[in-house]
Amino acid sequence: MSNSWIRYLTPWIAPIFVIIWSTGFIIARYGMPHAEPMTFLSMRFLGVLICMIPIVLLWKAPWPRQSQIIHIAIAGILLQAGYLGGVWAAVREGMSAGLTALIVGLQPILTALLASWVAEKVRPVQWLGLVIGLLGVGLVVWAKIVMIGFSDLSFIFIIIALLSITAGTLYQKKYCPQFDLRTGSVIQFAASAIVCVPLMMMFETREVAWVPELIFSLLWSIFALSIGASSLLFVMIRHGAATKVTSLMYLTPPTTALMAWFLFNEPITWAIGLGIALTMGAVLMVNKASSGK
């Protein structure tokens, strides 16, 4: 009965996962005025640990081998501290939520190309997809500069985020592709906290405005994003829906753009719409080519 219900709900779990994932960029914009990036992320990572450690102890989840722990920690630092730190810092410096999501949305292209470069020759259609994707991002960046502009520092931060999530994805795939989600999450978030807390102490004021917006952003980040989205992903992979996640992930930037338009009145012009379409088409093209479809 349980399995039948899971099979029934699986088609709905994938789009729910994408919607929750897309809110990460919105939450960054929503909570940013009330806490600095490393301060917020330190609280988020510590909050996840407070929730996950009792779960690990209660269910007696298996821990990875000692040789794997370092690899899991490195992947976690790249995927959590590097990626989220770059996103939050970029938004803090004035980059819009929609543009942030679009640039990070190039990650599947870079991952596919670098993975293919390691394993086999890159196909011409993949290079074509990369060029189209860069044109799409360039079009959106140009449109944003014309409308509101953004700082060079915010662009540097979002590139750090893009490179971090790409490197983290490849590193985890190569050195620690399989581990228990519960204990692995504890290792990854603990390692990320070890990175973020010193940065918070050295470079930030650590002032937090405990307003409802900040509290909601923090709770949503802990439970919906760090715990909820990860759990949904685990369920989908376990029940054979991982391919649907891969394809639906390409909808994250346009979903974020629509949310930002609705919540923050971030405009969507024809240039931005065309850029989003080009970028998402390019990501899909490269992904299909890399999977041999």
TrEMBL record:
It is found in: Membrane. Belongs to the EamA transporter family. Pfam families: EamA. Keywords: Membrane, Transmembrane, Transmembrane helix. The keyword Membrane applies. The chain crosses the membrane at residues 12-32, 38-57, 69-91, 97-115, 127-147, 153-171, 183-203, 215-235, 247-264, 270-287. InterPro entries: AA-Vitamin_Transporters, EamA_dom, EmrE-like. Signal peptide: none annotated. It is a multi-pass membrane protein. Its main location: membrane. The lineage of its organism: Bacteria, Pseudomonadati, Pseudomonadota, Betaproteobacteria, Burkholderiales. It comes from the Bacteria. Residues 16-141, 155-287 form the EamA domain. This is EamA family transporter. GO terms for cellular component: membrane.
